[in-house]
Every structure is written in C-alpha cells, then in structure tokens.
C-alpha cells in the first residue's frame, strides 16, 4: 500500500493505520495537507517537473516527521500526517509548522527555483474515541478547507462549529436554488451621475434576496456560496437577462452588471452572453460588464482571451474596485478597460492624506491617457464628491446621490428631473451595497 511516485504510504495505508494504531489509552491526531499553488506550477512547467516537485515535497515531509509521525501521500498534491501518543496533537502541529517553514524556502527542481505553500487541517481524537477512519479523515478535510478559506499558508484545528456552519451553508445552498427556481430574487439598480451636472448616466445592477420577514441576505454571503456550489452560472445569467430586459427602454444610459470570476472562467459564458443580448434585444454598446482585479491577476492570459470574446459583441468592460488589490498602471494598459472604478477606500484615503490624493489624481491622469472613463464609487459626503470632481472623475456613484432602487423607481427618476442628493446626516457610516 505504497504510492508509486513518492514511495510514501498511500490512502489505503492511512485508513488501515487509523484502525490498527488506535490505542484506547492514547491520543491520536491527523493532519491533511494540500499544497497551495501546485496546480499553477504543474500547468505552467509540465507534469514531469510537477512530479519531481511532489517527490521533493514528500522527501521533506518524511524528514520533518522523523520518528514523531507517519507521512502519507493521498493523491494529487494532498499529503497526510498521523501522530499517536499522549502529546499527539502538540507533536502534529509542530510537524505541520516545520513543514510549512521548509516549503516556504525555494526548492531547486530541474534547474528552476520553486516556492510553494500549504494549507493544513488538523483533527485531534482523544483516548477512547470511537470514530471510523472515514469520519477522522472528514474532520481533517473540513479543517483543511477552513485553512484555505482563511487565506492559506496556515494550520487549522477542526472544531464542531465547522460542522454547524457547514450545515447552515448547505441549507443556504438549497434555499438559494429554490429562490432562483421560484423567482424570489430581485434586481435593483444604483444610478451613477455625471460629475459635471449630476444627471444619471448609468445604472449598476445589484442582485437582492429578500426574506419573508423583511430582511435581506447579503450578496457578500450568497454569491460566494453560489460560486462554490455551481449555481453561479444560473444566477449570473438570470441577473444579466433580467437587467437587460428591464433596462431596455432606459435609453441613453449605460447598464453595468457585475460578473464573477467563476463566470468568466466558464468557457461558455461568452456564448450565453450573446444569446442573452439576442433574446432581449439589448444594445451591446449600452452594456458594461464589471470585473475585479482578483480574476485578472490570477491568470492574465486566459482573462485577456475572455475579455476579447466579450468585446467582440460590442460590450464594454470596467475594472471594478480599483485600489484594493494588485492592479498596476501596466495592468491597465494590458487590458484596455473602457472604465476604471475607484474603490470607496481609495476615496476615503485621498480625502485624509495628501499622498493618497496625489496617487489618485495620477491614476486618473493615466486612465485619461488610456481613453478610460473614471468613476468614483462609494461617495457618501459632499466633500468626497467635490474631491472626485476636482480629481477629474467622469462619474460619481454612492449613497450621497442614490441607493440601489427597484426598476420602476429608475423609470420614474429618468422621467423626472433633478438629482436626489441626500443630506449627509442620512448617510451615516453606511457603505454602498454591492452585488
């Protein structure tokens, strides 16, 4: 029961040891370890180098364990460590942290210097615990995914709260699927105003999930769940079609729709976009898709191809939340966005710090040189609005002017005149609601 590539015991061996090494008088502790970034290295450099890296990682793990723990390769880039004895938990965590430190140092593989991280999930079983090997592995696996969700490069111990949250997430998944099927979701729209005359020039579509008691489940909660459980394709397509249908008669203004990284990674997204435009009759030149830096930085080559396909329909692309991630001036040149949206945090910093203000003005100047429009997001005070105008922003979006409102209210606004600039005392410390 040995892994053919690394020579470590395999998954079957681990299941067997979890039974055979159980001591009613001693503690047992198990860690599942997933290598962070291995897939990217494997895809970029090829499977031969990937295999060599796995062998080296296995050797390091075997060395780090020494006589204190047993190491295993479960498949792919997943390893495990088992420790038994009175201090099994303490010993296991020490092994995992030493392994993390060793992997953080660059490894020399076939003439290349490679660095890799790990996410570890740990589960402790007290003396006399009667659990199946499958349940032991499940608990360590849940903890490992908690490490990944917390930012990777960390060790996380399993806690019963994880199962409680897991059940709550599963219920939310089921409820979201029902809400989509039964038409319980809604799309609201937050207007963007021209920085010069405060007239509405665009709206951003934001999905809402109202509850029977009058509350709402935040998009920041249910959209990540939709991405994880595979509902994002259905949800994203529904929002896009609903928005194109409702905004069809709002002539002379742009419709912005957020697109998640999961949607953009889907090779069928561009095709479905074309079908939605065809079914709704929405003019593609009035549609703008907002994307985030995270997706583009992760795989710029694939991202560039996806955005090129979208632009072939005549649809514009905006970079959302600029100032919160890794995007640089060179990044802006590479992707040639039609619009740059400055994140609220950048506006707040610019209002309080001269250096941040200078950086914001410089960024806007570069965007101008690249023929990009610039929108200031999350504007909540008159001072912030004045700063956005003085810095050269084309459009302003935020609670100072409008919250997200239903489609019928947008129609009324467009039919009327004037701008709904709210008193700052009504704004408080709230933030712009995001999809």
Kindly name the structural category: alpha/beta
CATH C-level of the largest domain: Alpha Beta
Number of domains: 2
Shape verdict: elongated
Number of strands: 16
* CATH fold node name of the largest domain: TIM Barrel
* Largest sheet report: 8 strands, mixed, barrel
CATH architecture label name of the largest domain = Alpha-Beta Barrel
Q: What is the helix tally?
A: 18
Low-pLDDT segments, ≥5 res: 417-435
Gyration radius, rounded: 26 Å
Order of strands across the main sheet? 8-9-11-12-13-14-15-16
SS strand fraction: 15-25%
CATH level 4 superfamily of the largest domain: EAL domain
Helix content estimate:
40-55%
Overall mean pLDDT: 86
Terminal-residue CA separation: 49 Å
Keywords:
single chain; 435 residues; alpha/beta; Alpha-Beta Plaits; TIM Barrel; 2 domains; eight-stranded mixed beta barrel; five-stranded mixed sheet; 18 helices; 16 strands; 21% strand; disordered C terminus; Bifunctional diguanylate cyclase/phosphodiesterase; Rev_trsase/Diguanyl_cyclase
Write up this protein.
The chain has 435 residues and is α/β, with parallel strands linked by helices. It has two domains: 11-158, Reverse transcriptase/Diguanylate cyclase domain (Alpha-Beta Plaits); 171-427, Alpha-Beta Barrel (TIM Barrel), CATH 3.20.20. It is built from 18 helices and 16 strands. It has an eight-stranded mixed barrel with strand order 8-9-11-12-13-14-15-16, surrounded by six helices. Strands 2-3-1-6-7 form a five-stranded mixed beta sheet, sandwiched between helices. It has a two-stranded antiparallel sheet with strand order 4-5. Helix 6 crosses helix 7 (219-229), helix 8 (232-246) packs parallel to helix 10 (269-280) and helix 14 (344-352) crosses helix 15 (354-369). The longest helix is centred in the middle third of the chain and has 23 residues, at 160-182. The two termini are 49 Å apart.
